[in-house]
Amino acid sequence: MLSKPCNGDTIALSMSESVGVAAGLTMTVLGCSGSYAAPGGACSGYLVEGAGVSIWLDAGPGTLANLQRHLDLDTLDAIVLTHAHPDHWVDALPYHNVVRYIRKRVGVQVYSPGEVRRLAEEVNGRLDPAFDWTVVRDGDRTRIGALTLSFFRTDHGPETLAVRIDHDDGTSLGYSSDTGAGWSISELGAGLDLALCEASLPLDQERTVQHLTARQAGISARAAGARRLVITHIQPGVDSAESQRQATTAFGAPVELAAIDERYEITHDPT
């Protein structure tokens, strides 16, 4: 199967896509372009599944279309939106219209900073009863079935929340969302089985804006003791193969490159 990484190139999916392998959590990439979508691509969005729970983690432009290749929209349990930049949340608006008018549902759980909710209400009007929207902040924690979600403020404006997802079986996923170098994956806590970290910038733009290079992503994940690293949110035009090489050198182990439709099986390693 072929897929598109963050910068729009076409590649063959890696072995991490091995569908059907039992795992505590799975993560499917719905979009991974940074700031705007590459040709044929989509912005940030991931389908996280575990213990019978499905979570749409960020809903950037293009991810609603891709979500439907992997999930019946009627079965989605929750949406988590990490911040108000449009490349991370605006596809939640048409999905709201789906469950409000077309495939009617009540009480779809949504979690986000307050500014995202304000913008959604400004565009779509009343959000309930279709959405049961909870505003979350730094330090908040919530349960969705057997999954625990914890939220952490990153070095990025507007208010941006990294997310750690823990399965009751011990499996864990950490997602940086967007951040600058003033925040580290270590703040998500120890024992991450997989770190999903932004790597927006080429090396020559390091520390110019509140985003990371692949080298910084690798350093951050290594310091956190993450067992695996997937880099994402690479801006169109950035050499993703070079980003992967830089991240691998800094991380000290092979690093995977997010690609649309790639599915990662995440299992817990207690060692």
Would you write up a description of this structure?
The protein is α/β, with parallel strands linked by helices and 271 residues long. Helix 5 links the parallel strand 14 (229-232) and strand 15 (256-257). It has a seven-stranded mixed beta sheet with strand order 8-7-6-5-4-3-16. It has helices spanning 63-67, 92-102, 114-124, 214-224, 240-251; strands at 2-3, 11-12, 25-31, 45-50, 53-59, 78-80, 108-112, 131-135, 141-144, 147-153, 161-167, 172-175, 194-198, 229-232, 256-257, 263-266. It is 18% helix and 27% strand.
CATH superfamily: Ribonuclease Z/Hydroxyacylglutathione hydrolase-like
Task: State Rg.
Answer: 17 Å
What would CATH call the class? Alpha Beta
Write down the secondary-structure element order: EEEEEHEHEHEEEEEEHEHEE
Please indicate the count of domains. 1
Low-confidence stretches: 11-22
| Count of individual helical segments | 5
The number of distinct β-strands equals 16
**Any idea what the CATH architecture is?**
4-Layer Sandwich
Fraction of residues in H or I helices:
10-25%
Strand order of the largest sheet: 8-7-6-5-4-3-16
End-to-end Cα distance, whole Å, is 33 Å
What portion of residues belong to β-strands? 25-35%
Provide the residue-averaged pLDDT. Answer: 93
Biggest beta sheet attributes: 7 strands, mixed
| Secondary-structure content class | alpha/beta
Shape: globular
CATH topology: Metallo-beta-lactamase, Chain A
In short:
The protein is α/β, with parallel strands linked by helices.
Task: Itemize the secondary structure elements and their pairings.
Layout lengths: L1 E2 L7 E2 L12 E7 L13 E6 L2 E7 L3 H5 L10 E3 L11 H11 L5 E5 L1 H11 L6 E5 L5 E4 L2 E7 L7 E7 L4 E4 L18 E5 L15 H11 L4 E4 L7 H12 L4 E2 L5 E4 L5
